[in-house]
Structure formats: C-alpha cells, structure tokens
Amino acid sequence: MKKTHLWTVGLALVLAASLAGHSAPASGRTPADEGLAAIAGDGCTVIIVGKDASTDGSVITTHTCDCGICDWTFRRVPAADHKPGSTRKIYHISQYQTWPPSEGLRWDLIKRDYAGIDIPEVPHTYGYIHGSFGYMNDKQVAIGESTIGCRERMVNSTPAARLDLTMLTLLGMERGGTAREAVQVMGSLAEKYGYGFHDDGEMLAVADPKEVWIFEVMPVGPLWTPQSGKPGAVWCAQRVPDDEVAVCPNESRIGEIDLANKDFFMASPNVIQLAVDMGFYDPKSGKPFNWKRAYSPTEGSAASTNGGIQRLWRFFNLTAPSKDLKPETPNMDLPFSVKPDKKLSVQDVMDMTRDRSYGTPWDPLKGIRGGPFKNPNYFNRRAPRVIDDGRAEYTTVTQSRAGLPDPIGGLVWISFGSQDTACYMPFYAGVTEIPKSFSVGDHWTFSRDAARWAFDYTDFHVQVVYSEAIKDVQAAQAKYERDVVARIPEIDQQALTLYKKKPAEASKFLTGFCLNNAQTVVGAWWKLGDDLLVKYNRLYLYDTEKRTYERGKPAVPEWWKKAVRAFDALLEPDKK
C-alpha cells in the first residue's frame, strides 16, 4: 500500500463516507445526533430589540419563515368600520398548506376551510400587512413568530379548537392598537374559542413603538370543550426590558413569572393550575413555577446537541460577547434577554439574520464541508441549524418607531428566500398596496410574475461557485439594501412634510416609493441571476465588457485537489 500522511488518510476516509453516501446505523446514533435530529425541522428565528437597545429608538422584531415548501405570498388588508351586530368569520389556516396557482390565490382558497364559527366583530379593524402571519398594522403593532412546541398531552387538533395561530395573528392585527392590547386580544380569544387545531406551542414577539413582549400560547389538550367553562388555551407573556435584546429560536423563552408585576407579565387565569392538573408542576415541591420547564422544556445545550440548538447561544454570543456565555450552558439556563454590548441598528439586525455561525465550532465550512468554493449549504442536511437557513420562504424585519405618525413610523422590511442571497425591501405601515408580484407564485411553478422567483433564480446560480458569486450578491445588497436603509430618514421627512398638510398624500407618496423600490430590486435580482450565469458559466470567468474569458478561474483551491488525490489513492489497488 502506498504511504500517505495520516491527515490525508483521515481526510480521504471522510470523503469516502460522504461521497459514497454511507450513513451510520440508527443504533449508533449518539445523544448529540438525537438532539440534532429532533430540531431538524424547526426553523423560525425571531430577533427582538428593545427601543433603548437600538441605535435609532426603534423597537425591532424579525421573523424567518423557514419551511422549504410553504406559501410565500403577501397581501395588504385595509382598515374597515363595521356596523353593530356584524360578525367575523373564522377560518382554519395551516402554516404549511398550499394550492397550485391555477386554483387561485391562497388567501381566497383558505375560505374553503371554514372553522364553523363567526365571532362578534369590533366597530373598527386596523389595516395590516400579512404573509403567513400578521406582521404590521396601522398602529405600528408588529409580530414575529417562532414555533416552540408543547408537551404531547396538551396538543388539541380537534374541531373544538376554533383558532389556529395564523388566524390568531390576523385577529391580533385587526384588533390590537398596542402590543399589550394585541397580546390580551389574542390571549382572550384563544381562551374563549379554543386554540390549536393546526398548531401547538407558539411564540409571538409582539411590538409597538414603546415596548415588545414575548407571548407564548399553547393548547390545553384534546378533551377541552367550550362547555367545560375552562380556558381553551394557556398563555403567558413577558416584556423584554427596553434596553435589552432577546431571541426565540424555536424554544420557549419564559421562565419564572411574577404576575404581581403587571408591567412585565401577563398570563391566562389557568397558567399555573393547568400545569398542576396535568402533573407538570407540583406546588408542594418548594420550587417556584417555571413556565418553560412546565410546558415546553428544551433539554441540552449548543455543545451537547452538536450545535443542534445553538441559535440561542449564538445570538447572545453575537450581541453580548462580553458576557462570555458558554456553549456548554444548558439552554434552559441561558437568560431571557441581555443588554447588548453595543446598540443595534436595523442593518445590524438584517446582517444578523444572515449569520451562519462562521468561526464557531459549528462553522458550516469547517474542514471540507463547504467544498472547493466554500458553500455553507453543501453539508446542510446534517449540519447544525444556524440563523440563516436556505429553506427560508421570506424574512421580515419590523421597526416600530415613536416620534412619527403611525403610517410613517411603522416599517416592515421583506426579503424573499435565503437571507444571504436576498435583499430587504421596505414597506411603510401607511402604504395602501403591495406589489402584485408579492401576492403570487409557489415552489412548484416557475413564474417571472412572482417576486420570490427572482431571488431563487439568483440563489441557484450562486450555489455553483458560492465563494465568488456571493461577492457579486453582496455588492448588489450594498446598492439596493444598504443605500435604501441609509435613505429612510430622508424619506421619513418627505412623508412627514406631506402628512402635516394632508395625510392621504403622505400615504400616496410612501406607497409609490415602496412599490417603485420593490420593482427596481426585483428587476435587479432577475438581471443579477442572468449575469451570474454568464460570468461563471462552465466554471470559467467571463468578462462581458472585454469579451474575454479565463479558464481556471475561479480557481479550484490546492487543498481540494489534495483531497481528491487522497480519495483516489484509496481506490487504487495495493502496489508493491
């Protein structure tokens, strides 16, 4: 057998296992593997920034809608006044169900799944922007969502549970004039009409220009009926301190609660008793009641799950490195929120949604995982879950800003597809419409009429030679995202001048700005995809201006060539 260096043999063995498609038998799975597998389907990361923790006084939330097959469409629902005695139809809306575009628009088709109940309407409902969930209404009330699960005995998928999460957020948008009010609206409706059906434990970050709450709601089991006289949901909400930041990465975040402190806690009347009745908490134990330990415990740490649940640790690692929180610290023991080492701008938050845990023990480029062109997506089937995930349908960043009229103060930034190759586009709370291209399309039917496909088109061409093509994307992001972020104060002032004279003119101006910007960005991303196809075609480097090309560029790195030769050596017969 030919002699090779030990590192070469090890590298070759890794390559052999990877390229041959071998996997360890189930019986050989470690606890870390199990922890990783348990969260493989989870995705939605919510970043939360209090007003005094942001550089401009914004209250900020995010939502990464990660699924890979779900609906990505948006729409704008106008405000409305309702006559006495009016009712609101309730529909069951699955987060995951889609229909072929040929059958119609999703938000028309959901009416096929009537929940069998109409509830009393309120005199006035606010207008709002929504996708899979409600995101921003006319009063700058904003929402970000993350599934957190609950104990199995709590799940209620029976028809008695009239409200699922999407419907609940739409009602919160329609009826909540402040974050606190929206929490109370959603909580009380869930209690009265029953929560669950399509969903189980969920977290919503609910914000307004003054404050932001983490609101967690769960079903109460399949035996609940309205006739029981008991609440049809259990919920709890905790306010994030104004000068702190928090995150929800598919884990319950509320621990010990103090309902006497009404400025920071709210809850359903059964918040503790349900846990006692179900055997999740023993008041005789001498231990204080802990919400997440009772209803949705997440065992393990970033380290013990091989990075499977590392997003919580990673967020604190990014925002407050001075605290030196260890990846070995159990997630259940990590803080609810922290004061960041420096205040965060909205651009900082956007950049954070693109984090891939580079430089950590769970770097997706570690070793040879990224291939010759350092693609963080190559190893993603078994990779630790990071904040930026290629399955994202879209991501939202909301800003609720005091000191401005609501139509100008509220902003929803929307990006489609994987955050690293996408571009955030602003939509003010005062817009009267959103682009038609945002309301159409799905994963199974390519369409140049759907904005989302422009970003997937570019993303697809980036994957071939990621380390080089991502630089082209970042240059486009600097032009079409960062420059617009920097222009927002100017747009605010122009709109404010108009608003003082005639509010309708301000809305018209903001709508025109947002629609034009979105059209420009979507067009730029279609062209970017075309340009990448030409520039890196055949793995050559084509210069369209000089009409020249270079073979061997982008260059395959020498370490990759060594790895290939090491793999080949394993396949050669022994030579004497």
Could you walk me through the main structural features you see in this protein, from its secondary elements to its overall organization?
The chain is of the alpha+beta class and 576 residues long. It has a domain at 403-576. 31% of the residues lie in helices and 16% in strands. The protein is built from 14 helices and 20 strands. It has helices at 6-19, 31-38, 106-109, 165-175, 179-193, 273-277, 291-295, 311-319, 346-352, 406-409, 451-462, 466-501, 503-535, 558-571, and strands at 46-49, 59-66, 75-77, 80-81, 87-91, 114-120, 124-125, 128-130, 134-137, 142-147, 202-207, 212-218, 234-239, 245-248, 265-267, 392-400, 411-416, 425-428, 541-543, 548-550. The strands form six sheets. It has a six-stranded antiparallel sheet. A five-stranded antiparallel sheet has the order 10-11-12-13-15, with helices on one face. It has a three-stranded antiparallel sheet with strand order 3-8-9, with helices on one face. Helix 1 packs across helix 14 (558-571). Residues 1-40 have low confidence and may be disordered.
